[in-house]
Amino acid sequence: MFLNTKFDARFAVPIKTREIHNHHMDSTRWNGFQFRDGDIVVATWAKSGTTWTQQIVSQLIFNGAEGVNVPVLSPWVDMRIVPQEAIDALEEQTHRRFLKTHLPVDALVFSPKAKYIYVARDGRDAAWSAYNHFVKAKDDIYDALNTTPGLVGPTIHRPTGTAHDYYRDWFDGDGAPLWSFWENIRTWWQIRHLPNVKLVHFNELKRDLVGSIREIAAFLDIEIDEATFPAILEHCSFDYMKAHAELSAPLGGAPWEGGASTFINKGTNGRWQGILSEAEVTEYEARAVRELGYHCAHWLKTGEGL
């Protein structure tokens, strides 16, 4: 049930043991990355609060500034269609750097110089959000994912069924057509004790954004300027991000029908309720315990008990 993660005894941090390649990912892009002291890595499975957390981190770094173009400053390093030039440009950044990954721990180069924020969300909510993300993606993004040289494995295509159909494929295929959901959660949960790792839950961001921002700032050793904290809080609200979605969505939202506001969709949970049958709910929750153990499964469902 649990991975036997290897550790480097000098630093007590995980050691990379494999590469992952698919229509989205090329994990080798981390292999030569030159970390700096204080680098920040925001990690998730997908559609679990990545962009929201990047926004929070950006606002803490830039002290509540307007107009921070998060996707440009904080690229998804292992996204294989992101131009290498965008990754190389990180060398020119003079501010504290913050990056994005969707890799499980054992496929990621893990550095003791960096701080890692892992954001999780109930799998049913993540799957519903992924359906919206992919059903509204334009042909251009599918063409890029499927025709850019270096593709390993099957191609990816727009969902043709309902959100419920997508969920069934996601559940039966363990995150399909993306990457393993349970494995991703499990590997990050296993290293939650490390001093440079912080686990954050989507539910907690929604329940207590003020407290969550302050906790993230403390973890990152960023002293909040109370004079600008109201601006930080406003800029991290869902309404603000929706209204300024072109500064949050990759490529300004161009790859999605309806633009950036489609990428920043609803930010709501529980859309699966009343659609999944009682048997499907039981099936999901039993599998979560089987895959993750009771403690992790409870945290993943509720955001409580970390």
TrEMBL record:
Residues covered by the Sulfotransferase domain: 37-280
Family: Belongs to the sulfotransferase 1 family.
InterPro entries on file: P-loop_NTPase, Sulfotransferase_dom
GO function terms (MF aspect): sulfotransferase activity
Keyword Transcription regulation listed: no
Protein name as catalogued: Sulfotransferase domain-containing protein
Keyword Aminoacyl-tRNA synthetase among record annotations: no
Record-linked PANTHER family: SULFOTRANSFERASE SULT (PTHR11783)
Alphabetized UniProt keyword annotations: Transferase
Organism: Rubellimicrobium roseum
Pfam assignment, any one: Sulfotransfer_1
